[in-house]
Amino acid sequence: MMQRTAGSQSMSRRGVLAGSAGLIGAATLASGAARAQQNANLGAPATVISNPPRDWTPQHPSIYPDPDVIVVDPSFNQVRRAIAPIQRVWTGALWAEGPTWSSQGQYLVFSDVAGNTVYRYIWDDGRVTVFRRPSGNTNGNAFDFRGRLLSCEDFTRRLVRWEHDGTMTVIADSFDGKPLNSPNGVAPHPDGSIWFTDPGYGDQLAEGHPDEAGGERVIYAFDLQGTKLTNKRLFTDMTVDGVKCGPDDMCADVFGNLWCSSNGPLGYAGVRVFNPAGKLIGRIRLPDVCANLTFGGPKRDRLFMAASQSLYMLEVATQGAAPG
Question: Residue 216 has what pLDDT?
Fold first, then answer.
């Protein structure tokens, strides 16, 4: 008969403990695998590019952080509000453009260029009403530092200002004796000057007069010396992931970041955010091509995006640098 010693008893215990540890480890791995499979079965949130795509109606909110607000560089987290969704606040335009915020009236003005109408989004209750129709196929808008509305009219090829008494003043309709192409974007300066772009977008019969258009689809930066632009340089060619997109409008926040509209394929249409050095730090994906954008709201912390047929809004963790 074999006699069990203290050593064999100790080894036996260790063997039992080792066996138990192996069983526990196997059970833990099995549990972890089950949880991973369970999480995989939960799926990913719907986005602009998912199938089926994201539902933009208020009854179908998105999970936080919004999956269509993409952090490209960690610095974007300083200006992105993680618990804010992209909201479609209105739809029904033919080509939405030119949003600008009135701090005096607490409303946003934006254009439907092809629809020949300027609309107003009222902050208090979110209503959208007709502000001016016909509008001369108004494109870009901006309020100056005295609260007067500046508008770029495609059809008449001019920049106008609407005075407080309701009358209209033509600011510019020609240069060197030649008519303008189609004023597109406008920005006032505190010194009273008005800066505007004059591309050929009004060459379409639906929005202006047929003409020959052009454009490089890039963004340049300049140094400003008085009223002169110097040191022209490429800021961005609007290419990301090998996808070439076209810019239209842009606005700056108080940190000097540039928020640029992006005309591109689904997944790249929307907004791109660059730091002052021209580095891409963030993207906002929209289901529509974004033509124009601005900061607004009582705190100037809402980014309004006019995109094709709709007006979108996103709360951010920064403020717009422009007047409003």
Answer: 82
* DSSP assignment letter at 144: -
10 Å Cβ neighbour count for 266? 14
| Among 246, 282, 280, CA closest to 265 | 246
Please count the helices (runs of H) and the strands (runs of E) in the chain: 1, 25
Average confidence (pLDDT) over 188-213: 75
Tell whether domain 69-315 is in CATH 2.120.10.30: yes
Give the pLDDT confidence of 282-295 residue by residue, as tens digits. Answer: 999 999 999 999 99
How far apart, in whole angstroms, are the C-alpha atoms of residue 298 and residue 282? 24
Among 216, 161, 164, smallest CA distance to 183 is for 161
Answer yes or no: are the C-beta atoms of 288 and 274 closer than 8 Å: no
Query: Domain ranges in the chain?
Result: 1-43, 69-315
Estimate to the nearest angstrom the gap between the alpha carbon of 252 and the chain centroid.
12
Q: Provide the whole-model pTM.
A: 0.85
